[in-house]
Design goal:
Blueprint: E1 4-7, H1 15-18, H2 22-25, E2 29-32, H3 40-47, E3 52-54, H4 64-67, E4 75-77, H5 88-93, E5 97-99, H6 108-122, H7 125-133, E6 151-155, H8 159-170, E7 174-178, H9 184-189, E8 193-194, H10 197-203, E9 206-209, H11 223-228, E10 234-237, H12 246-254, E11 259-262, E12 282-284, H13 293-311
Parallel strand pairs: 1-2, 1-3, 3-4, 4-5, 6-7, 6-9, 7-8, 9-10, 10-11, 11-12
Helix pairs in contact: 6-8
């Protein structure tokens, strides 16, 4: 009997066009799930019949509770070099093989989207587009402002933050940076000036987050931090939604104190009735940061290679992070 493979969370319908599935089609029965599972019960019901699951990033989490409800699972393929939504201990206890892929491109996709959100927020791109599409013109669009001469504050100056620092410099912005372990010399090497977290929040016209989500960073931007931001300042988040306390963010936005340009959310997909969808001082994209052709080609090609190697009895690219 041929193994059954589930390809989950193909939200943009690109799985088939991103790689050559011929060899895997010849050896397995493949089912592609485009929509997100609304909850763990739905995921368990849909995925229980499958021997192998090919997942996309952290869209569907695999905690121990879900793993226990997948009796046939023998292999889980994740995309990217790490995945914090997978309980590796629970998988190992069952002897389930877990593989990963390379990251794809160098992070430019997410960094460029941060720049796009920054520009869209400052120049009211979404409002202008909506006005044109509804028969209007400039009347419903408030004036924006230029970024040249303004201050960009980067919370996190790793690979992506450094790319955004370069974009800010190219636009003629003053770039400040902070992270828990950042030293002034490292900031200077990336073209930024080190500042304390509070100084950065109180000074920047645009604050862009580039931190990895962890127990230590979850909720690192709360009511106090948002309260330090300048009136009308823009908060850009292309990293992870839970870095920001959602209730505090909603309160700051409802009060009209700041603008939010967001690609990531506490819950994804963002619920249809979520308050963020109706607030005017937001620019919202549906977690598009890494969603470029270059990444999907690597993700799906290497995932297919991983599954074929597993079927041949010689697994490759084990997940270790």
């Amino acid at each position: 009997m041929r193994p059954r493979i589930a390809v989950t969370d193909d939200w943009q319908g690109v799985a088939r066009s991103s790689a050559d599935w011929t060899a895997l089609d010849a050896r397995a029965e493949i089912s592609i799930f485009r929509d997100a599972f609304p909850d763990e019960d739905a995921a368990a019901t849909s995925l229980a019949p499958f021997d192998i699951i090919m997942s996309m990033r952290e869209r569907t989490p695999f905690p121990a509770s879900l793993i226990a409800r997948l009796p046939r699972l023998r292999m889980l393929s994740v995309t990217g070099p790490r995945n914090r939504s997978v309980d590796r201990a629970a998988l190992a206890a069952r002897g389930i093989v877990v593989t990963r892929t390379d990251a794809g491109e160098d992070g430019s996709a997410t960094a460029e989207l941060a720049l796009a959100l920054m520009l869209a927020a400052t120049r009211k791109v979404a409002a202008g587009d909506a006005a044109i599409r509804t028969g209007g013109f400039q009347g419903a669009v408030a004036p924006g402002f230029t970024l040249r001469g303004r201050t960009l504050g980067l919370i996190g100056l790793g690979r992506l933050g450094s790319l955004v620092a370069g974009y800010g410099t190219a636009l003629g912005m003053r770039v400040l940076a902070w992270s828990p372990n950042l030293m002034p010399a490292r900031a200077a090497a990336a073209g930024a000036t080190w500042a304390s977290k509070d100084e950065l929040l109180g000074t920047a016209d645009v604050v862009s987050l580039h931190m990895v989500l962890s127990h230590d960073t979850e909720g690192m931007i709360g009511a106090r931090e948002l309260g330090l931001m300048r009136p009308g300042a823009i908060l850009v988040n292309t990293s992870r939604g839970p870095l920001v306390e959602e209730s505090a963010l909603l309160a700051a936005l409802a009060a009209g104190r700041i603008v939010a340009a967001l690609d990531v959310y506490e819950r994804e997909p963002l619920p249809a009735d979520h308050a963020l969808r109706s607030l005017p001082n937001t620019v919202l994209t549906p977690h598009l940061g890494y969603c470029v052709q270059e990444n999907f080609e690597v993700f799906y090609r290497q995932s297919i290679e991983n599954v074929l190697a597993f079927l041949d009895g010689a697994p490759i690219r084990p997940l270790t992070a």
